[in-house]
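Tokens in:
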């Protein structure tokens, strides 16, 4: 539309300025009546060259806009030019709809194939990792301990890649069941027990005998990501506290720590993909993907996640989980 306006604006300028310029030029070298006569001929020619096609095109555009309305398009049988426009818009709309559906099927198929490949890849990779873990168990020692630690980090990265793929999928392949906050937290603590003991982190649990509805595996992954962040950005004499709270239509599951906290200017962007912030760049181990994936998974699970932090004081992350097996509007 902008190019259309620019083109006809230039046409108007040329159509007006040309006869005016000719009149000024001829009136300087000859008499004014001759100059006026020639200028009028030029103006009349410009009318047929520029103005008349413009008016005709405007009428056609107006007619096409009217016919683009589906109610108006099929309200009565058309004849002549109107019939052509009606048929044109009808066929064009159908072609666009079919092309869109075909492209949507292709994208969904590609996503499904990627998910299947990722699941197969994760299974194949975890098999040798499990074997290495057993080998380390059979030969205890400092080297084996370090190997187990690095294997855990590799497994965490693999899980993150798998859940990232799931977070981008339009399919809802989760399984909603009643869960106990206490059971979920205890499982997460067991999975991270080695790191927690090595770092001397004190754990507290408050009011976790609450039940809600979500996918337990996805929730455990989210909590593992939050736990990993809390451990990575801890201070000396670290304390983590898992807490629960029951509301009318949702339950809260939170993790608060006394770590280094998040800078106030970074807080609005912590859920952006790849954003590491000042803290992540300072420590140099952040990918900026953990919280992004957590946010995406929460959206798919009809949950919400909120972060409150003060630099130098610590961070409090709260998950809002549906209390019943239905969809809720989460708190703003």
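Residues out:
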């Amino acid at each position: 539309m902008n190019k259309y306006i620019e083109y006809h604006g230039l046409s108007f300028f040329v159509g007006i300025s040309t006869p005016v310029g000719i009149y000024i030029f001829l009136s300087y070298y000859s008499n004014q009546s001759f100059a006026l006569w020639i200028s009028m001929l030029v103006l009349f020619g410009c009318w047929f060259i520029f103005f008349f096609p413009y008016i005709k095109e405007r009428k056609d555009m107006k007619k096409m806009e009217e016919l683009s309305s589906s109610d108006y398009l099929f309200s009565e049988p058309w004849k002549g030019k109107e019939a052509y426009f009606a048929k044109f818009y009808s066929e064009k709309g159908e072609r666009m709809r079919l092309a869109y559906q075909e492209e949507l099927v292709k994208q969904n198929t590609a996503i499904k194939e990627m998910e299947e490949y990722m699941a197969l890849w994760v299974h194949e990779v975890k098999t040798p990792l499990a074997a290495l873990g057993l080998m380390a168990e059979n030969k205890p020692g400092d080297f084996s301990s370090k190997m187990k630690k690095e294997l855990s980090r590799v497994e965490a990265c693999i899980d993150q890649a798998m859940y990232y793929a799931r977070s981008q999928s339009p399919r809802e392949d989760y399984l909603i069941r009643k869960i106990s906050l206490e059971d979920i937290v205890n499982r997460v603590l067991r999975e991270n027990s080695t790191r927690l003991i090595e770092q001397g982190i004190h754990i507290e649990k408050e009011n976790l005998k609450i039940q809600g509805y979500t996918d337990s595996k996805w929730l455990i992954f989210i909590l593992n990501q939050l736990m990993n962040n809390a451990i990575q950005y801890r201070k000396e004499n670290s304390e983590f506290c898992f807490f629960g709270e029951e509301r009318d239509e949702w339950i809260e599951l939170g993790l608060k720590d006394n770590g280094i906290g998040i800078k106030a200017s970074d807080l609005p962007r912590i859920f952006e993909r790849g954003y590491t912030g000042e803290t992540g760049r300072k420590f140099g181990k952040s990918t900026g993907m953990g919280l992004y994936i957590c946010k995406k998974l929460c959206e798919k699970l009809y949950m919400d996640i909120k972060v409150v932090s003060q630099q130098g004081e610590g961070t409090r992350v709260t998950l809002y989980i549906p209390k019943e097996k239905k969809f809720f509007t989460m708190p703003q």
